[in-house]
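Reminder to self: tokens first, then the designed residues, so the page reads top to bottom the way the pipeline ran.
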């Protein structure tokens, strides 16, 4: 039994969910500012869901590495649903007038949403290329020592994208370069009877690819929702923690986890779709 766990006969709704500890964590720093508690609650809930997403994405990756496209897709569908909850979860802040936010903004100090280690972990686990570039290095440098250590572990692991490409390879596709992968995507998108290709069914692989696009799209919506919320609260002014605020968030909206799958859409569509 895990340390601190309650014996089954003593389990209640409250102690199973650790409610006393959980509900003690909303601690506003500003005096007499009602909306700060809402701000804290929304962001804590986001981080709870981030943690669940990391668990689901890791499970999906492992199932793909095991060759189980069907279970991996089911977990990615769950991830899309969770991201929808994340989007809905920030909407209560839209009803917070800017004057209420600015009444407690000063107590935020140098803190910034860019310091969310779990958000960077999600992008890393999904396989976002920007995490491994100069921008990602700057973001990671702003994390705590323990968070940086966790990120080093994530960067050393296979990503969801690595697992998907490996699964295509097991199915007989040439995946060593982008040209070979593009040919694989085109084949998955082409009209065909269901069948096998020396591995998982093509239909299952095609559905898995679409689930990855669904996840990418959902995160684009989340980033757009976040950018709009920040613009509503602070306009075009600088963000907290020394960030450029809305300008930075707008630039991040269209970052893709899986750009190859988006770029392959043009080649996969029939020429008739373009009026040829």
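Designed residues (276 positions):
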């Amino acid at each position: 039994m895990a340390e601190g766990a309650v014996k089954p006969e003593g389990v209640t709704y409250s102690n199973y969910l650790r409610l006393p500890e959980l509900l003690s964590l909303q601690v506003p720093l500003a005096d007499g500012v009602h909306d700060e508690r809402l701000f804290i609650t929304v962001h804590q809930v986001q981080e709870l869901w981030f943690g669940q997403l990391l668990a689901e994405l890791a499970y999906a990756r492992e199932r793909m590495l095991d060759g189980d496209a069907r279970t991996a897709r089911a977990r990615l569908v769950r991830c899309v649903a969770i991201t929808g909850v994340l989007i809905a979860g920030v909407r209560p802040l839209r009803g917070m007038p800017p004057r209420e936010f600015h009444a407690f903004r000063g107590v935020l100090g140098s803190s910034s949403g860019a310091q969310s280690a779990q958000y960077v972990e999600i992008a890393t686990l999904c396989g976002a290329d920007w995490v491994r570039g100069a921008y990602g290095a700057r973001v990671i440098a702003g994390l705590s020592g323990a968070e940086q250590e966790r990120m080093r572990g994530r960067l050393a692991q296979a990503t969801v994208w690595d697992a998907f490409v490996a699964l295509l390879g097991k199915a007989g596709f040439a995946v060593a370069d982008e040209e070979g992968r593009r040919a694989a995507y085109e084949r998955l998108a082409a009209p065909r009877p269901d069948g096998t290709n020396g591995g998982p069914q093509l239909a299952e692989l095609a559905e898995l690819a679409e689930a990855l696009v669904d996840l990418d799209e959902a995160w684009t919506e989340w980033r757009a929702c976040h950018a709009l919320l920040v613009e509503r609260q602070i306009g075009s002014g600088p963000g907290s923690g020394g960030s450029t605020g809305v300008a930075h968030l707008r630039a991040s909206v269209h970052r893709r986890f899986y750009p190859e799958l988006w770029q392959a859409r043009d080649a996969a569509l029939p020429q008739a779709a373009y009026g040829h």
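The CA atoms of residues 111 and 241 lie 5 Å apart.
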